[in-house]
TrEMBL record:
Entries under NCBIfam families matching the protein: eda
SUPFAM superfamilies attached to this UniProt entry: Aldolase (SSF51569)
Top-level taxon of the source organism: Bacteria
Pfam families: Aldolase
Natural source organism: Stieleria marina
Metal-binding found in the keyword field: no
Involved pathway(s): Carbohydrate acid metabolism; 2-dehydro-3-deoxy-D-gluconate degradation; D-glyceraldehyde 3-phosphate and pyruvate from 2-dehydro-3-deoxy-D-gluconate: step 2/2
Family: Belongs to the KHG/KDPG aldolase family.
EC number, as in UniProt: 4.1.2.14
CDD domains, A to Z: KDPG_aldolase
Enzyme class, broadest EC rank: lyase
InterPro entries: Aldlse_KDPG_KHG, Aldolase_TIM, KDPG/KHG_AS_1
UniProt name for this protein: 2-dehydro-3-deoxy-phosphogluconate aldolase
Length: 225
């Protein structure tokens, strides 16, 4: 097996343009959260394994909000991959590159994007067969200028990068203009605090704002073709 993203999963991520990265403390909030994101036009989310509620939240969303594509983030150990795959995650990601985690994702057939920040990490990930990568922390490391520079030697490989870290409605379009970026990810749409306070309208409004940025960019690029 491999851990490549199937075309339809990648297409869904590209079409959404933004992955809502979530830290959820209470699985009872999961369904309302997913519905709020959908109301704002965001249908791809990443539940981070930073809290115990992430896996139960994934199960509830899969069963009650099937229109949402839910992946899992912050996968730090190889043994977590089976739990994530068994719970029905559409994909897995991590902030960094761990060969053991990548190999476990390949064994389980879970689409997986490791985090990279250096040429050596890109090369190690490519050597293991990865094509979809996360770049973290994107803004602090130099934003799209850094990503454009670091990715240049590998452009012939068709790698795809999802930037994460410090991204928001004001800077997301800088990344999305690049053909090597199918989507950005970020926690600004639904912060841990907004979720804990059940601020569903604010979350839907943030999602809508992000959606507007993606749509505006699409209109602009079509106009210039
Ligand atoms: O720790 C990283 C976050 O999950 C994603 O970055 P952000 O909070 O800057 O959006
Ligand atoms: C930061 C990130 O990429 C993750 O937690 O998976």
């Amino acid at each position: 097996m491999n851990s490549l993203f199937p075309n339809d999963t990648l297409q869904r991520i590209r079409s959404c343009g933004v992955i809502a990265v979530l830290v959820i403390d209470d699985a009872a909030h999961a369904v309302s959260l997913a519905k709020s994101l959908l109301a704002g036009g965001i249908d791809v989310m990443e539940l981070t394994l930073r809290t115990d509620a992430a896996i139960e939240s994934l199960r509830r969303i899969r069963s009650e909000v099937p229109e949402m594509m839910a992946g899992v983030g912050t996968i730090l150990r190889a043994d977590q991959i089976k739990v994530v795959a068994d719970a029905g995650a559409a994909f897995g990601v991590a902030p960094g590159f761990s060969p053991g985690v990548v190999k476990s994702a390949q064994d389980q057939g879970l689409p997986f994007a490791p985090g990279i920040l250096t040429p050596s990490e890109i090369e190690a990930a490519v050597e293991l067969g990865c094509r979809e990568l996360k770049i973290f922390p994107a803004q602090a490391s130099g934003g799209m200028k850094y990503l454009g520079s670091i990715s240049a030697p590998y452009n012939h490989l068709g790698l795809q990068y999802v930037p994460l870290g410090g991204i928001n409605a004001a800077n997301m379009v800088d990344y999305l203009r690049s053909p090597i970026v199918p989507a950005v990810g970020g926690s600004w749409i639904a912060t841990r605090q907004l979720i804990a306070e059940q601020q569903w309208e604010s979350i839907a409004a943030n999602a809508k704002e992000a959606r507007r940025e993606v749509d505006r960019l699409r209109e602009e690029t079509q106009e210039t073709i």
